[in-house]
Amino acid sequence: MRKKLFGILLPLIVWIASTTSHAGLIVEFESVQMEPGRVGSIDVYVRSSDGTDLVAQYNTLFRITRISGQGILEFQPTAEQSNSETLEPNYVFFGDSNDFLSTSEDSNKNELTQGDIAFVDVRLDAAIANRRLLGRLEMIHRLPADQLSTFAGAEYQVSLVRNTTFFAREDLNTLVPIEEASFTNFGTVTFAAVPEPSSALMLLVALYSIGSRRRTQDRGGCFRPSQG
Q: Do strands 111-123 and 101-103 pair parallel, antiparallel, or not at all (unpaired)?
């Protein structure tokens, strides 16, 4: 019954939340670096601008935008999202997570929807040090194997999308305002360039040379002339 009511009210809730400009919640991202062609994740946090906001429900939509580079970064499919954030003590509804869902549609893997419901309102702090974990978005970077050796780096942005995003109190009738900055904040996902074979070889030679000198110095340091 609660889910049905939630679905019926969703369009109205989203419209009201999108037209609200009062101070309220701030959603922030933690930028990360991933390895090309591998799986990684980016954490999303939420806090209150003045420390008075209470939250018991949320629905968020995230989007990946490519800035530069090779390959494709996309959200892991629904079945591959581990939902590990709900086990973190810092998770916004830790111990009271009742309907967590993380969904990535096969037709649009650059978007991910996450939501959850708690039975009791949670008060959010204003301090960055006390912000709560909202989501751990798991992604995969797809890069053909024959391009890995020539990979020159890449950069993507992960952002919160206004369309279906809202936060609400336990009674479902009270929306929690979202600060506009939440929709202009973004997390940066970067990929370092793979060193060229010649550069990698030169690095190995340099490291070997340094190691050899140290070993020679160590042996020399052990020699003590006899006292006559």
A: antiparallel
Q: What is the pLDDT of residues 141-166, one digit of tens each?
A: 999 988 888 888 999 999 999 989 99
Q: Which of 63-72, 139-148, 188-197, 199-208 has the lowest mean pLDDT?
A: 199-208
Q: Residue 100 corresponds to which tokens in the numbers above?
A: 């967590």
